[in-house]
Amino acid sequence: SSSSSSSPAAPAPAVVRPPPTKDYGRVGVPKLAFGSKGSKNGQFDDPGGVAVDSTGRFIIADNTNQRVQIFDDKGKHVKTFGSYGTTNGKFSNPWGIAVDSADNILVADSDNHRF
Q: Distance of CA 34 to CAs 2, 6, 63, 100, Å?
């Protein structure tokens, strides 16, 4: 008789279930796309991260343009803030972005080594 060694079972993949009130469409089918390459408002150069606040606004870390851009829930540009530098309000390759429960915007400012 032959013996076979069994390896531990792989953990089950995580399942993400969106709230039933939201229509996210089919997986892989974009519901909204906006922007183009460039440095004007509404354009991006190597966008790094995106977050969505409680009102549905998109907050995007625009890495190489050294700024953060905010868009409404339809993709219309609302506001831009930040520029290149090391002082408060300035960025050096902003990459990650998050929004807390009070809609405060948190930016991971990579090359300035701060959040």
A: 60, 50, 17, 24
